[in-house]
């Protein structure tokens, strides 16, 4: 923008020429700095979606041969036969979803309980150490979880947990706990994933509970609410959209987790109603086979599995956004 | 307030048109109605509803309120005024044991509700708060609840279980009527409580406190965040409510104290300096510090 082009401030009264020149220079120089800064930040901001688009494009391109060969059968078929060149990913998709659901069912109440205890009941000297230990669960490498799963969790499940579930709670009659229990199983994977996603759900829930304004707590207390009634009536409703966000974050973690699950799930491409039977997940499938994928079709099939996992993750995140949005909108009226 | 015939403190007689008209002229006039006030103060047969005795309130080692003795009469409005930080809110929060919900806060001395010590052994803070309602400086509706559910929020805690739907509806309507909000919200009881204006939200909070039928209502600067029109509505409401309940109101607005209260207490640096019938305190303060404050020389 130059002063030459702009109309004089007062019609018929031009500014002195020298001052006008200085002004135009100073405006021009400050404008240039801004433009560079704007361009730079825009470039960096665009890098992320471009990278994502590139990733999606490449996976799609590499997976195309498998998708075009098997069509919808790739998702619905249970046959994963490498020598015969027939690939169906249904058991892996099933295993990913079921193990993640088990993880959430186990982890969510526990994590919210931990968060409520830490933000509402724990004495100050206990808050920091316990919060730190819970957060530490997220810092343990997943291969360590896998090792612990094989040598501690699976023996523990075999005795006393599974006998307790079957005989004491009489769940053995249901299809979910039928059949022989070898050890590596969908249940073991779900429990490992629950432990691994717990710190995420708990940390987010703790923060949103803490962020509930003191005025809301006081309003409930002033009505004569007990501490528990205050939490139930005033604190949790205020925090629910944030807690849902935390649960979805935990779900994202569970869907994509590879190493620990591969070590305890048994890696068998079968769909079984029993949680005690071994299973497979998409991430484990890719991790187990990428190094042996010599044929082009095999490699393409693995890429296609990766693509399905990618899409499921995006859909889950989309649902999460939508859920948080509707809850917030509902709250705002 | 101008009514020359003293109103029986326990009667629930409905307000006459005459009263309303007179009040309309009172509201802008504020401070000085000497004759009427003097008559009323002299003739009132006051029973004490809430009394603080040698009450001190601490945050850690710091005393925010020191050795306060204050009696609040049944079915009267007591205003507590004083500069920011003088301890008036803390004093108010000691009356329903909200003070102790802050970590490190404690209270010494005693508070009597109809002669019963609320800090006594074996009394529960929760039970105390069910008899002494409180409304805060900023409106605090529960944002995830509807207008109706907000008003009903205190019922379950008082009764131990939620009253029947029908009883609840009646209680909600009654509380909203008394809070002067019924006409404005009766067609949208199911909508969110944060969809109404700030002034309406504050009256909703008053309705929520009224629904549990407390004996005492504590108001902590209830109009500090409201516009003048909403402020007037809340003040009229306080004026009306005093026929059925004891009200204690903290305010930094001296005109407000003069408009709606029967007795006014002046606090400074945590101590109670002077308490007197409102008119007397504002016209003939006994203490030089009170006079300095009400004439605007500090604070």
Notes on the structure:
The complex is a heterodimer of chains A (333) and B (299). A two-stranded antiparallel ribbon of chain A has the order 1-2. In chain A, helix 3 runs antiparallel to helix 8, helix 3 packs across helix 10 and helix 10 packs antiparallel against helix 11. Chain A is mainly alpha-helical and 333 residues long. Helix content of chain A is 74%, strand content 1%. Chain A has a domain of 199 residues: MetI-like (MetI-like fold, Orthogonal Bundle). The N terminus of chain A is likely disordered. Chain B is of the alpha/beta class and 299 residues long. Chain B has a single domain, classed as Rossmann fold (3-Layer(aba) Sandwich), CATH 3.40.50. Helix content of chain B is 39%, strand content 22%. Chain B has 12 helices and 10 strands. In chain B, the strands form 2 sheets. Chain B has a 6-stranded mixed β-sheet, with helices on both faces. Chains A and B meet through helix 7, helix 8 and helix 11 of A and helix 4, helix 5 and helix 8 of B.
What is the element layout, followed by pairings?
The complex is a heterodimer of chains A (333) and B (299).
Chain A lengths: L16 H54 L2 H4 L3 E2 L4 E2 L2 H32 L2 H13 L5 H27 L17 H26 L2 H9 L4 H30 L2 H6 L17 H8 L6 H37 L1
Antiparallel strand pairs in A: 1-2
Chain B lengths: L16 H13 L4 H10 L4 E12 L2 E12 L3 E5 L6 H8 L9 E9 L2 E2 L7 H7 E4 L11 H13 L5 H14 L3 H4 L12 H14 L4 E5 L7 H14 L4 E5 L3 H7 L2 E6 L2 E7 H6 L4 H7 L5
Parallel strand pairs in B: 3-8, 3-9, 6-7, 7-8
Antiparallel strand pairs in B: 1-2, 1-4, 4-5, 9-10
Helix pairs in contact in B: 5-6, 5-8, 6-8, 8-9
In short:
The complex is a heterodimer of chains A (333) and B (299). Chain A has helices spanning 17-70, 73-76, 90-121, 124-136, 142-168, 186-211, 214-222, 227-256, 259-264, 282-289, 296-332; strands at residues 80-81, 86-87. With 333 residues, chain A is mostly helical.
């Amino acid at each position: 923008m130059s002063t030459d082009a702009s109309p004089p401030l007062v019609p018929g009264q031009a500014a002195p020429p020298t001052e006008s020149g200085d002004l135009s220079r100073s405006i021009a120089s400050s404008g240039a700095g801004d433009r560079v800064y704007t361009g730079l930040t825009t470039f960096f901001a665009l890098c992320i979606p471009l990278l994502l688009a590139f990733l999606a494009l490449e996976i799609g391109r590499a997976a195309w041969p498998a998708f075009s060969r098997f069509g919808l059968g790739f998702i619905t078929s249970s046959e994963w036969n490498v020598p015969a060149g027939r690939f169906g990913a249904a058991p892996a998709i099933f295993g990913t979803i079921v193990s993640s659901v088990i993880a959430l069912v186990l982890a969510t109440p526990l994590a919210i309980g931990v968060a409520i205890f830490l933000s509402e009941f724990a004495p100050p000297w206990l808050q920091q150490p316990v919060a730190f230990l819970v957060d530490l669960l997220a810092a343990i490498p997943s291969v360590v979880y896998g090792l612990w799963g094989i040598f501690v969790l699976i023996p523990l499940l075999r005795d006393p947990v599974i006998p307790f579930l079957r005989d004491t709670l009489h769940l053995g009659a249901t299809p979910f706990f039928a059949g022989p229990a070898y050890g590596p199983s969908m249940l073991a994977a779900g429990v490992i994933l629950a432990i691994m996603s717990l710190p995420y759900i708990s940390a987010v829930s703790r923060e949103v509970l803490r962020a509930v304004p003191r005025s809301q707590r006081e309003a409930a207390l002033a009505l004569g609410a007990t501490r528990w009634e205050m939490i139930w009536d005033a604190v949790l409703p205020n925090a629910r959209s944030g807690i849902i966000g935390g649960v979805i974050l935990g779900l994202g973690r569970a869907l994509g987790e590879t190493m620990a699950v591969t070590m305890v799930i048994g890696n068998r491409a079968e769909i079984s109603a029993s949680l005690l039977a071994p299973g497979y997940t998409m991430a484990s499938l890719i991790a187990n086979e990428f190094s042996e994928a010599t044929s082009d079709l095999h490699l393409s099939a693995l890429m296609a599995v990766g693509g399905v996992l990618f899409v499921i993750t995006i859909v889950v995140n989309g649902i999460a956004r939508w859920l948080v949005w509707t809850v917030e909108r509902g709250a705002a009226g | 307030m101008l009514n020359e015939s003293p109103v029986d403190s326990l009667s629930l007689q409905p307000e006459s048109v005459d009263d309303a008209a007179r009040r309309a002229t009172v509201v802008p006039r504020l401070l000085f109605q000497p004759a009427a006030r003097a008559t009323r103060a002299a003739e009132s047969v006051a029973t004490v509803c809430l009394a603080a005795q040698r009450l001190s309130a601490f945050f850690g080692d710091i005393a925010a309120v020191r050795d306060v003795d204050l009696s609040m009469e049944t079915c009267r409005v007591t205003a507590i005024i004083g500069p920011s930080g003088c301890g008036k809110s803390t004093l108010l929060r000691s009356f329903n044991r909200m003070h102790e919900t802050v970590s490190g806060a404690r209270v010494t001395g005693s508070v009597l509700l109809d002669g019963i010590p609320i800090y006594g052994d074996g009394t529960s803070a929760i039970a105390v708060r069910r008899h002494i309602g409180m409304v805060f400086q900023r409106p605090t509706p529960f944002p995830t609840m509807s207008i109706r559910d907000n008003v009903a929020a205190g019922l379950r805690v008082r009764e131990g279980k939620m009253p029947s739907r029908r009883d609840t509806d009646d209680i909600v309507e009654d509380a909203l009527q008394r809070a002067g909000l019924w006409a404005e919200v009766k067609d949208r009881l199911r909508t969110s409580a944060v969809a109404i204006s700030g002034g309406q939200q504050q009256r909703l909070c008053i309705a929520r406190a009224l629904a549990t039928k407390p004996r005492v209502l504590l108001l902590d600067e209830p109009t500090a965040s409201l516009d003048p029109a909403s402020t007037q509505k809340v003040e009229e409401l306080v004026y009306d409510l005093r026929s059925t309940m004891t009200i204690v109101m903290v305010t930094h607005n001296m005109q407000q104290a003069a408009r709606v209260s029967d007795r006014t207490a002046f606090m400074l640096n945590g101590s109670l300096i002077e308490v007197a019938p409102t008119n007397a305190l504002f016209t003939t303060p006994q203490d030089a510090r009170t006079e300095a404050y009400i004439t605007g020389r500090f604070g």
